[in-house]
Amino acid sequence: MSALKVMTDRERFTLTCVGTAGFFGLWYLAALLQFAPTKFLPMPHQVLMKLVQLCSEPFAGAVLPEHMWASLKRYAMGFGLAASVGVPLGLLMGRFRWLDRVVTPIFDSLRFIAPVAWVPFAALWFGTGIGGPTLIIFAGAFPPCLINSYRGAKGVEVRYLEAASMLGIGSFRTITDVLFPAAVPSIIAGLRIGAGLGWMSLVGAELIVANSGMGYMIVKGQSAIATDIVMAGMIAIGAVGVVIDVALRKLEKRLLRHRQQS
To answer: What domains can you pick out in the chain, each with its CATH number?
Structure first.
């Protein structure tokens, strides 16, 4: 059997352009055929014009960059907390069996609760402050960070751990010098998944427990029956999500390259 053909960058770019053009083409066709009233299904160029307009004209108390900045601050706090707790805890659980047995039953009971289910508690505990969205983002991003770090640590070959023990390396250095470097690919994969879930959780949180941000702007647009504003906000949210994922992909490639060279 012949090997699968590796797609070139040019072919990927061409297919991406074809897919994008097809999406907007179907959108224009649906709008022209009036599958829904124009008020509820505006043309793509009308949404893009509104997106540009929102960058200079305030809506729901702020311009688009200010709403975006408010969302990013909440996201940075929630995702940063999830990564800083989930990654070390996952590595420790992979190293110490007693900690694994203590944490796993509680974690397995909570990780299947959808982040949106924490919204009532977030509203009661924190109101519309930054704490509510931070809690919901943490609930979405934490499980992948912990699970992948744990799996990465459990996947380290026993002979490396035995060698570290024979050399008299302590538990802390074993985690930092043996487990962590070996688990990097799995950790980065968990961060990428957690980043996406955290961003989606943020928007859900802002729909209810925030007075600024992209989700808040979309809710106000829906209340005003301004579909172009709602769709412009969704495009901005998707664009930021893509930027976050691309940044993590670049970080993953750089770390893997450094790991192979060392």
So the answer is: 40-261 (1.10.3720.10)
